[in-house]
Batch of 2 targets.
Target 1
Amino acid sequence: MKPSNTRKGFFAEGVLTAPSFLWLALFFAVPTLIVVSFTFHGHTPNGGVAESWSLVTWRALADPDYPSIIWRTLRISVEVTLWCILLSLPCAYAIARMDKRRRPLIAAAIMLPFWTSFVVRVFAWRTMLHPDGWLQSCYLSYLRCCEWLFNCLPAFLQHALTGLGLASPEPLDPALATALDSEVAVVLVSVYSFLPFALMPIYSAAEKFDFSLMEAARDLGANSFYAFRKIFVPCIRQGIVSAVLMVFIPAIGSYVIPQMLGGTNCVLIGNKIFMRAIQNRNIPHASALATLMAVSVLVPMALTVWWRARQKARDKKKADIGMAAQIPGATV
Amino acid sequence: MKKSFFAPTVLGLVLLFLYIPILLVIAYGFSTDGISMRFFDADGHFLGFTFKWYKQLFTGVYSVRSLLDSFWLSLEIAGIATVVSCAIGTTAALALHRWKSRLQTVHYALVYTPLVMPDILIGISLLMLFVACRVECGFWTILIAHITFCVSYVVMTVLARLQDFDRSIIEAAYDLGASPLYAFFKVELPILMPGIVAGGLLAFTLSIDDVVITAFVNGAGTNTFPTYVSSMVKHSKNLPAVFALSTVMLIATCVLAGISRMISKRHSA
């Protein structure tokens, strides 16, 4: 019994489509359109939205405050994405080369830390990076150790090291390890939080990779890094593209991590939106920033869809040419 | 072939990097210092361990009451959101799989877009809607928001399961005299169940972990576990209780995962 275009078929389609369609239209599409429409209004001093249509809000985005925040968000997202990919590639390679029975175990071991609440994990990082935290005390003991070793050395060696610039007679700055409230902390914890999103697609691509190709490359004289770069990476590029998207999208929309670890030194678009919407009650500005964020996510998304379609078309063309070449007398 | 040591070393370091915060979460739950959670004082003396936070959690004393309340609220919202989004998501996946009309193209776009939208945009747009409709923010607005972002994930998981589903089984059921409803509940639904369960688990984890969207629509005074924890950052005297509760949750999740794995193994054997 095939679904037919009868009245009954339409009725069944309507019944099955209606719940999700209406729900998402009401609670996703309509609110998003409201937000976009608010960007074409000014704001009133009492926290409302002005009646008349204008471009005031979009012009206000050019004031010195916003471009630096937008730029910082993009830069940090790119940094985080690069780190995640760079770390995931060797990891995925290592897991894919393992014994088949051990692979799911390692994959589970990677996912296990993410069964704890996200906020709690970020909180743990915050405590760790805090000036009273143990990273700082490790660093201090390291400094003390160095100082003690330095004092043990004979005087001429001390002078030589100082002269070479390898040691300084001044005590080192003990606050050096206080990474909290800085961009470094935000990048570090973002990489920590988004790493599995990069690792999983790259790993599932690497699992299907035929490792005898690597051996072939080495037989032909390639060293292992060259083979990794020229054979392994191009073969799993689909997985890498998915990984880039999976990390870049949450990194652009990041709010909790900069809020808890960046302090006032690393305010990103997400924090600014929250600040404008909840604290300043400047709804048009918050809407404009949110729209901008959505666009910066949708553009790479659309590019990927286009790239995938082109690759598919190209593969198909190649296959067609290959088939045609096999037919004797066929002209391509 | 010569074995490369570089990749396994990176893997080892990455695993270490992933586990340090988890070990800290467990360790902090035993800390005697309720504010900065140190184990050593300024002179390097060991301050010792304590089970006091666990005792507080299990007896539910006043100081951890709001933490426990937020935790139960999280569970409640995640539970309801999972059930509702599974129901809505499964019907949507069935419709998307069976019909290829223009309506379904729009439907698919509507289901797919929330997956790539930043959370903060979903949060702010829902807040605008609730403010425009003069709805008081609280339990119901949080629930609506959670169902909204969970539905898409359920649809995608169930749709993946439907893709390798052999429709001729349903036709066989019809040939044997089953009514469409009977065939759906007795044949199609049991085959789809693993997909629905996987989607539901995903929805549950996403819902129980969400901070950003909840922070927009929770209104004053209603806190889920994640928003409560993030509000504790600045001022709190019983921080280790949060970590103790997380440790309990982690152990519970591991046990549940182990049990489900055993059951699925027994089924496949």
Note: The domain at 62-237 of chain B is CATH 1.10.3720.10 (MetI-like fold).
Target 2
Amino acid sequence: MFKILVVEDDRDLCRTVASFLNGNGYEAVGCLGANEAYDAMYKDTFDLIISDIMMPEVDGYEFAKTVRALDENIPILFMTARDDFASKQRGYRIGIDDYMVKPIDLDELFLRIGALLRRAKIASSHKIEIGALVLDMDERTASRGGEEIPLTAREFNILYKLLSYPGKTFTRMQLMDEFWDAETNTAPRAVDVYMTKLRGKFEGAEEFEIKTVHGLGYKAVIK
Amino acid sequence: MTTMTKKKRHPAWSYFIAFFVLMSFVITSSMLLFLNYFAEASGVVFTRENLFAAALATFGNAIFLALICTGVDVLRRRIMVDRPVRAVVEAARRLMRGDFSARISPAASKGASDGFDEIINCFNTMASELSGVETLRSDFIANVSHELKTPLSVIQNYGRMLAAPSVTEEERLEYAGAITEQSRRLADLITNILKLNRLENQRIYPDAKKYDLGEQLASCLLGFEDVWEGKGIEIAADIDDGVLVESDSELLSLVWNNLFSNAFKFTEPGGRVSVSLKAEGEDAVVKVADTGIGIPAEVGEHIFEKFYQGDTSHRTQGNGLGLALVKRVADIVGGEISVESEVGRGSTFTVKIRMAADEKALGDT
């Protein structure tokens, strides 16, 4: 069972979030401040941290920075009333993984925690496994039941990205920015060519399907 | 406040003295000039006796002419200056007392010296703007308290009903759902009020950077993927590549998110939301169209005002601040926003933003 640490100075909010998570298949521990959280982390290991920003004594930024210095993989989610871009930017620069503005929707929090944990697993194992399909980041290979599916490096990278975030649509430009050199003057439509190739190679695949979203972008949907 | 020091007016006799001195000077100079030439040419020598009567008559003449001039001048002042000034001062005093209906009748400038009609026009424009702001302000406060109190009282009531011992399981779920729904509404409203307040009260220096508008539209639109899939709304995106604008992307994302959220809100399942981006001349033109309920013309005029909601039956879904935010951002970044709509057919919002100088830099192969 995944263990989640909730750091929030408002007693009621801390309690409701922790008990909601406890009632939905996680084991959550609530702390009212960063120092209390350090103690809890000393005694126990956690899989994910949810933290407020504005807290007395040590604030969320300071807390996240300390945690990140000790563990570079643990997902950190900020849950805060600050909705300005500067605060978000500061958080992401420290190395947090997700950001939710209060008042938070508990159902959405649940979905995001699921996605964060799945990505953390992918990040630590460098592997995506869907049914019999395995994508290995270290080897840059895709195989089904031990049988390799030949992919070029760029095809592999795009597919790995899409399958790391199933159901999330990426725009052509987002994919271009990540997988093409900044200098290349390729039109964003070049992404279309790669999608066609990937679809051809995974035609009739039982695990997933690449969907075009209304001329906006592409997403992988797990069947 | 109203103790405005009245400027001391010159009495009529002071004008008379001024005109008299002027007349005497002009007549004396002309007479001397004339008599000199006349004496030289004719050799006539004037004596004190034969000049005295003439001098007396001329003196009388100067007094008479000065009187006429004073009369004419006083009359002229009264018509051309005093009357319009009094009208302006009167209206300004009413405005100062808080009577925003004060206007100057254009008739006050009839026959007045140049510039008065312009002053009166400006004054009237100012007064109507002020009264608009004032009505908005008082409406705003009334609306805010209404919008805040309604969900609060609903929450309070359901909380109390939940405490009753006889609540069935079904009722319990219904009440809890209503409480969640209302608090969500309250939260959205407060978020929007705070955003609008930040936009209105802070001096905003837009953080302008050059970026790809199409990309921003696409990613904002994708934020609503769950909504259109859940509601079964068809999406038509026609976004040109490589349209760059130089603007504040965070502010503009408020515009797109609000327009998209409205479009999805007012479109029934099975309807269609289309988003297009085209470069037209020097402008980037974004159109967000829906096949929703549409906006009647008389509502369209007010739609960018705070808390104005066209359809009261949809009040529960929004808070009437979204479009005010959109308009405010458009003003800040120097964009234009307009709406075309037909009741029952849907609405199209059009936003025009100046494109960045070298819009061809991106997207071309």
Note: Chain B touches chain A through 23 residues (CB under 8 Å).
